[in-house]
Predict the 3D structure of the following.
Amino acid sequence: MQRLDSFASQNQVVDLGPWLQYYAFDVVGMFTFDKKFGFLEQGKDIDSIMSTIEFILAYSAIIGQVPALHLLLLGNPLLIKLMPPMEQWNQTVQFTLKAMRERAEMKPGGEYTVSNTDGKDFLSKLASSKSSEDEKMNVRDLVIALAGNVFAGSDTTAIALRAIVYYLCRYPKCLAKLADEIMKHDKDSKLSSPINFKEASAIPYLSAVIKEAMRLHPSVGLILERHVPPQGVEIEGHFLPGRTVVGVNPWVTGRNAETFPQPNEFCPERWLEVPEQELRAMDNLLEFNFGAGARKCLGRHMAWIEMMKVIPELIRRFEIEFADPERDWHVTNHW
Ligand code: HEM
């Protein structure tokens, strides 16, 4: 908010896109390593981690659809022999190791010691699970779990935040309605500074706006694949043989007209004006933005808290509008 204040006080146009991602990254740093990465402070893509993630996703989006290409590109056996191991040039891993090294001493063979394991951050929790031999995690396990947060938790949340801000600016009446509700709560001294999750949850139109923007613009835009077990499976009356790849794209579930009439309309009210049972069906479909089953997003509650806190704070403090209402946003699908 301080950084945005400095732009606002100079009446300067600001691209909120990167700033929302800096925020998401710093939050990941806090709950993963109990450390601010400093994206907001420095106002830049530290160690090019954001562009690295974008590159990996762009690559994976293509390879996910045409897996054979991988053998000619990064999976080329010749390249694997010539290039240093992936963990040396994969910036996500390097970035995670750098953050870990500030608290952890890592020894060859996978042993490690971590200072301050009393915190609520992931590194503390995972490192203290060492006490039970069965659950003992080696350095590799730790890096995988923590790098997972760095990789999965920032641009997904940033995409959702951007969609929320975008749709609010596209639909100024909804923005005005939300601003009114927030200001009313503020006037009645129901909001601390910064707004906490419980207070934000008491503003029904806020969660309706967030859900509606996420419905129209899920952060993941290709199918979430699952493999049919060897014996095959019957889905909705169709028999699918073993090993068939099945999946649904959240962009499809979110536009299911049976559940969401006039699916292309941005209408937060739809989440507030339905009977309980219909709302449950809508929530279930929206939940698919985070996947389903055993591999469902592990950070979904964190993401929800992050969004519920920052959006009302932004609207309470600033009046937001498009710099150029004639220009639409440019979107690409990198998974
Ligand atoms: C709006 C924000 C987010 C969205 C839309 C989102 C979406 C997803 C999706 C679609 C998956 C794959 C699920 C599947 O295949 O069924 C996933 C996995 C995952 N997400 Fe998120 N995510 C978000 C935020 C976060 C955050 C903040 C974290 C950080 C803790 C996180 C951590 C993870 C992890 C660790 C996985 C892998 C789970 C596994 O494979 O077991 N996500 N997420």
